[in-house]
Specification:
alpha+beta, 3 helices, 33% helix, two-stranded antiparallel ribbon, 4-stranded mixed sheet, 28% strand
């Protein structure tokens, strides 16, 4: 492996896995929310908050947008999944780079 290793909180990782599993399909905020947060949350819009967290982490390693916003529709990811589990291997063929994503355990 010759890429970056990036660590994510449990919720960040759930959002990332959801996007990756949808592939090139656009995921609406509502669909992400209902998949990741099974119950109500007190935060006004947690999806936007966690998308921002993911973008910030990815921006430390890549100079392109890993997560794209599709106006009035939702989000999509700019990479292909190799494996999903507690670890996620992402490949970005258009940019000749890759990332090994690890979800940290809840404490």
């Amino acid at each position: 492996f010759d890429g970056n290793i990036i660590y994510f909180t449990p919720i960040e990782f759930k959002v990332l896995v959801y996007l990756v599993q949808k592939g090139e399909n656009v995921s609406s905020r509502e669909n992400i929310f209902s998949s990741v947060w099974k119950k109500e949350t007190s935060k006004a819009n947690p999806v936007d908050v966690y998308i921002r967290h993911l973008r910030k982490k990815f921006s430390q390693y890549f100079d392109f947008d890993v997560i794209k916003t599709v106006r009035n529709e939702g989000y999509t990811i700019n990479g292909t999944r190799i494996a999903v589990g507690e670890k996620l291997y992402l490949k970005f063929p258009n940019y000749a780079c890759e990332a090994f994503c690890i979800g940290l355990q809840e404490q």
